[in-house]
Amino acid sequence: MLEIILPYILIGVLSAISFSQAVIHVTPDHFPFQALVQGNLGGQAGALISKKHVITLAVDLNVSEMVTVYLGFLGHPLFEKYRNEGQGQIITSKKIIIHSRYMNISDKYINNVAIIVLSHPVQLSSSVQPIDLLSVPPIPGLHPNISGWVAGDDSRLQYNSLILHDVDTCIYLYGTEFLQTQELCYEEYPSSGLNLVGNPITVNNKLIGLLTFSENCVKHQSYCSDFFLIINLFPFITWIHTQIGAGVKSHDTSSPNILDLQKPDDLIEENKRQLSDIKVLQNTTLKTINKLSKKSNEMERAIEKILAAQISDRRENKDIISNIKKINETVHNLLKRLTNTILSPEET
C-alpha cells in the first residue's frame, strides 16, 4: 500500500516546491527601489532611480496633473490598511516628465516612459534606496527578477525569476506588435501573477525595464492576465539621465555640473529607432487595411452575384408571366368560340 501511495506523496511535495518558487514573498529591503504610482486612472508600479525621481510608464499619466508615490511598502499600497507601515514613505509629485515623443499608434505605445519628480527627496533607509540602470544591453538567456504586487489584489511584495527571449523568439510570439528597439519579452514558469503594469525587472541590482502591455491585453487598464513584454530602458538611458541631471552611474542630484547633455549621435540613433518603430506600425496598419480591402472586394463580388441572380430571376419571372398571359388569351378565345357555338340556333 505504501508503495502505491508514495509516488503521489512525492508528486505533491514537488508540486508544492514548484508553486512556492513561483511566488516568493520578500520584505522591502530586498527591493528598496520598488515604487507604486497612484494617478487619476488608478495605480501602476515604477522604480526609484534617484532621491527625487521615479521612473514608470507614460500611459495613463498623461491625464494626471499630480500623482502620489508610495515607497518602501510591504503590502500593496493601494489598500489603505497598509499605508501606516512605519518604513513606508508617501510623497506627492512636483512634476511629471513624459517622453516628448510618447505616442499611441494603432493601440501600440511608443516611447512609453515617464519620470516623476518628487516634491521632496526621499529619506534613504534599508527599505528605500534608488537603483542604477543597467548600462549595457540586456542579453537573451539572462535570468532577471520581476518584483512588485498583483494588480487589484490584497497582496504583499513578492518576486519571481524570468528568462529573457531573443529577438527572433519575441517576433515569433508577438509578431509586428513587438517593438524590438524598445521592448524585450520573457518567459516565467510557473506564472507568478505579478501583473501590475510597471513592475520593475532587475538583474544584479540593476534596472533593466518595466512590465508593459501587449496588444492582446485590454487597453487602458493596469493589469492583464497574459502578457510578457518589458519596456527596455537601455535605449532611454541618455534621455533618463538628462531629465534627472545625473551621470549614468550617479544617484546624486545635488550637483548642477553633472548634467549629461544628449550628443548629436545619440539623438540621431534615437530618431532612427523611433522611425523604425513607426515604420513597423505603419506596415501593420497597411496590412490591416489590405485585409479589410480584400474582405470588402469579396463582399462586393458576393453582392454582384446576388444582384445578378435576382436580375436573372426577374427575367424568368417576366417570361413566366408573359407565357401565362398568352395561355389566358388562348383559353379566353377558345371559351368565346365554344360559347358562340353553343348559343347559335340549330339549322333546320
UniProtKB/TrEMBL annotation:
Domain Peptidase S1 stretches: 9-245
Question: Per UniProt, what is one Pfam family of this protein?
Answer: Trypsin
Coiled coil start-end? none
Keyword Signal attributed: yes
Q: Where is the signal peptide?
A: 1-22
List the GO biological process terms. Answer: proteolysis
Membrane-crossing residues?
none
GO molecular function, a single term: serine-type endopeptidase activity
Keyword check for Lipid metabolism: no
Against InterPro entries, the record matches this protein to:
CLIP_Serine_Protease, Peptidase_S1_PA, Peptidase_S1_PA_chymotrypsin, Trypsin_dom
Tell me the keywords, alphabetical order.
Signal
Query: Mind telling me what this protein is named?
Result: Peptidase S1 domain-containing protein
Taxonomic source organism: Rhynchophorus ferrugineus (Red palm weevil)
- Lineage, please? Eukaryota, Metazoa, Ecdysozoa, Arthropoda, Hexapoda
